[in-house]
Amino acid sequence: MAFTTAQGRRRRGPWIFMAALLLFWGGLGLTGLKVLKPRYRSDPAFVLDAQDIAGLTRLQIVQGADAGGYRRSVDVLVGTGQGIEARTYPLGQTATDADDGAHRLGVFREGNTLVIIAAQEPAAQSPGHRRRWSRLHSVTVPAQFRHLVVTEADIHAVEPVAELRVDGVAVRVSGNVASLDLRAAQADCSDCSTSKGGRNGPEMPVCDPARPSESKVALRVDASAMREVVMSADTGSVALTHSAGLQRLSLLIGHEVGVSVDRAHVLLPGAKPVLEAGARPLLGDSACVSPLSGALEQSKPPARQALYWKPLS
Question: FRET label pair with 103: which of 94, 142, 265, 281, CA 20 to 30 Å apart?
Fold first, then answer.
């Protein structure tokens, strides 16, 4: 009888081991699914209504680097809705902290421009509290915005857009844009965050001294739904894909700029699209936000009007 019991234990041993192994890997798999689940489904979202952005045609996103000097790319969708929707990464936040992210995502009007300041990691944190901050993940804007200025972004036109100008450093543009003007932006920016005030004290940028940009110019275009493309850069590289449907291509680039095209035919004289080349790139706008002090105050820049995000219902 003792022999039979010992033999049964030996037979059950591998099955018990396999069951424990399956439970371990099953739990690990469930944890992994939770970690790998797409962020955007639960990211806090904030909106500006159509009346908040009435008359604006230019969008500028100021992206400050984090403590490691790394700038995260922003997804920008053009041509959808009437207002603006922004989603943030709630880094280090709990669910009860989520709506606080809007206060660190500065936004204001200046002339015909809407300026969004992607919030930085806070330099200091109250004792006994976790460090928490928000980073801009994506922005959805209506077709009234025909000029975008952003350091690093993946821009896609969802609905047909007749003309679009983009000034950036490391950007990719795709979608239904009839005429695209893509330029290398000036990006020797100060690192900006926002100072948080009360309801009557609007959030405004607080900038450290300017330092040279750590980003290399890299302009990318997917021209599958475009007719005309202008690419301007004095340094870095430009790349063009899906160019078969283009009618006109202008490469206004410096002599040291790297060029990548999907078809060598694009660069041949007399080819279609008609190629225009030049050594004088069109100047892009600065991707930096201007301070509210010093010489710029004396030159009376357009008045800034602070706006306030609303949670997406």
Answer: 142
Rg (C-alpha) for the chain, rounded Å, is 25
CA distance 205 to 38: 31
- Residue 138's CB: how many other CB atoms inside 10 A? 20
Neighbours of 50 (CB within 10 A): 13
Q: Write 53-57 long-range contacts (CB < 8 A, 24+).
A: 53/83, 53/84, 53/109, 53/114, 53/142, 53/144, 55/112, 56/109, 56/112, 56/113, 56/114, 56/144, 56/145, 57/112, 57/144, 57/145, 57/146, 57/147
What is the pLDDT averaged over residues 284-306?
A: 64
d(CA 185, CA 181): 12
Contact present, 230 and 181 (Cβ < 8 Å):
yes
Structural tokens at position 136: 């801009």
108-124 as b/e: b if 16+ CB within 10 A: bbbeebbbbbbbbbeee
Q: Which two tokens stand for residue 286?
A: 């600065």
Query: Under DSSP, is residue 98 helix (H, G, I), strand (E, B) or coil?
Result: helix
> What letter would DSSP give residue 103?
G
SS3 275: strand
Give the integer Cα–Cα distance in Å for 124 and 196.
Answer: 14
On the question of pLDDT at 287 being above 60, the answer is yes
Q: Could you tell me what percent of the chain has a pLDDT over 90? A: 35
Beta strand segments in 127-265, E: 133-141, 147-150, 152-168, 170-184, 192-195, 204-207, 218-222, 228-233, 237-241, 248-253, 258-261
List the single range of 142-151, 238-247, 287-296 with lowest mean pLDDT.
287-296
